[in-house]
Amino acid sequence: MKTYLEFEKPLAEIEAKIEELSALAAAQGRTELGAELTRLKQKAQKELEETYAALEPWQKTQVARHPERPRYRDYVAGLITDYTELSGDRKAGEDAAILTGLGRFRGRPVAVIGHEKGANTTERLKHNFGMARPEGYRKAVRVMDLADRFGLPVLSFVDTAGAYPGIGAEERGQAEAIARATERCLSLGVPMVAVVTGEGGSGGAIAIAAGNRVLMLEHSIYSVISPEGGASILFKDASRARDVAAAMKITAQDLLGLGVIDAIVPEPLGGAHRAGASTIEAVGEAIDAALEPLLDLAPEDLIRQRRERFLAIGRTEAGAVRGS
């Protein structure tokens, strides 16, 4: 069963009719339905093209959160060979919202870090919906330390609504753990490429996304707070999330213009959830293109480039924000 978003209801009705007629034609051998099926498929294609050609920021937010989008484990399975998962922060415990490991990307040894939301209810509970506790960020730092020691490029896959805000997480130093992870990203003497594959929520995202190159999938989002959270604070009304999503400039297209990210990875028509394999392939090509120029840089040059990149965000020139 496909999961349709609210704005996809017209498309859902057409595709339901296509499935119904296809089943009828197959069961009864009614070849005369072929012309009607062709017409409906053309109509569905047109509806899909028109819908995704003009998505609003709030609609992109819904696409970014689609439960069938490729997840960290999907990217690892499609892009990383000889993968060995590493667990535990060597301080307190294991956190399943951030997964880490070592493997090979196109033959090159790499360290891999990413948020995992889970594919079903059981997995989502296990992975805490991708919202990491301090142990997850400290585990990420441990793997970045290993990468730095052995000269391994770091690949990061970001997909979280934000760090877990529970009492236990706060008691164990959530803010400090996020700050240390962000600091470690910025001090790495090896190349780091980060990809926002779904949601990039606040410090919970940037803690593993402060790389030399930051990429975003076409319909992903990246923001300091969720649209609902922003609406609750500004208007005391979460239902105004649509307005806040537009005002915050959270889409890949807006953030590329503002210089927050370096490139957009195109998604298949209808979003990554409709064609996971081709999305993963496109992400692999984009990572390869972003990583290649970084491989010959000296550690001090990588650190300088990364720091200058982030310090330049929001810098004004003659009263204008960079990229505007």
Main traits of this protein?
single chain, 324 residues, 2-enoyl-CoA Hydratase, Chain A, domain 1, 2 domains, two-stranded antiparallel sheet, 14 helices, 10 strands, 48% helix
Looking at how many chains there are and whether they match, the oligomeric state comes to single chain
Order of helices and strands: HHHHEEEHHEHHEHEEHHHEHHEE
CATH architecture type of the largest domain: Alpha-Beta Complex
The end-to-end span amounts to: 42 Å
User: Helix/strand/pairing class, anyone?
Assistant: alpha/beta
**What overall geometry do the principal axes of the alpha carbons give?**
globular
Radius of gyration: 21 Å
Give the name of the CATH superfamily of the largest domain. Answer: 2-enoyl-CoA Hydratase, Chain A, domain 1
Number of DSSP strand runs: 10
The number of distinct structural domains comes to: 2
Unreliable stretches (pLDDT < 50, length at least 5) are: none
Write the layout of secondary structure elements.
Elements: H1 9-28, H2 34-52, H3 57-64, H4 72-79, E1 80-86, E2 98-105, E3 108-115, H5 121-126, H6 134-150, E4 154-160, H7 167-171, H8 174-187, E5 192-201, H9 202-206, E6 213-217, E7 221-223, H10 227-235, H11 241-248, H12 252-257, E8 263-265, H13 276-291, H14 299-311, E9 316-317, E10 320-321
Parallel strand pairs: 3-4, 4-5, 5-6, 5-7, 6-8
Antiparallel strand pairs: 1-2, 2-3, 9-10
Helix pairs in contact: 1-2, 3-11, 4-13, 6-8, 10-11
